[in-house]
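Running this now, will post back.
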Amino acid sequence: MAIKKPITIINWRGYVSNLKEAKTIIKDLSKEYFDLIKEKEKELKKKPKKRDLDLHLSVPSSFIYPLQEFVKDKKNEKFKKIIIGAQNFEEIGKTNKNNCVTFSQIQSVGTKFVILNNDIDFENKNLSEQLSPNLKEQKNLNKNEIDNAFLQRLNSISKKNIQNKKDESLEGAINTEKLLEEERKVLIKAKEKEFQILEEKLKCSLQNGMETVLVIKSHNDDLTFLANFVKRIVKNLHYNFFDKLFICYETGKKVLNMDRVYVDDCQEKVIVIRRAIANLFGIDEAKRVRILYSGPINLNNINAILKEGGVDGILINNETSSAKDLAKLLVEATL
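Update: finished.
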């Protein structure tokens, strides 16, 4: 059985401050990677069986073109497998209305792929967990008043006064519930607008032939919500675009010293995502969509995630790791 070729994406998250630093990171990353591969071969006393390295670097938009030229330089043979992409784009149209990065701008410099990050709340929380602090505090205060205030010093006040205070508190509770309902409607409307923008950006990118990574973030592992979201985001896409579509699930799990948990979590989410697409388009079309995993990826679990997790690759959201640390991860991803 042939070893699969997983895609590895490193998202720089904008922490690289200038172009010179960006080029230095690529040089150091490439050098460290090939040096570590050679060390591994010496340790094993033979050439290890490798997966091909398919490395995508997601960089700030102002670095895309110069870094593409940098890695294409014939003198830098070690860089030839590095593909440069964009971290996001804000505007779909050609006109830059809000001084934001547009799709036309990243497309015009030959960008190979783009990551669509989003800030939509995917956690499916109870409404009480989404309320503003003031409303939550008021709701708790009213509840305490209803439950406790009228139980104090009953012998010193009349039944009529007790009833009047109860009525006032209940009226306050009703008003608070109205405020909660209004805020709930505002939240739903805002989320719906965000989703529509995300959907439009995804269609724009895929229709123009760009490889597109859609990141779905979650911190509560609601599988039903994940399945419903995936169905909704892909249902209006034509399956001809699936070869360019990557769905990346970014887990919120944080379990110390239990790397197997992340492998199992990865398997579970892949099944949910793949099945959600298959329900709409059939399993053959669903297999064309590549699924990536992003989360607590380290030297202890990266190989198992790629071999056993059922994914087509990983996305490393990197902010502080050195080139050597990243190179170590890449070596584990290719061996």
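Residues 7-123+211-334 form a domain with the TIM Barrel fold (CATH 3.20.20.70). More later if anyone needs it.
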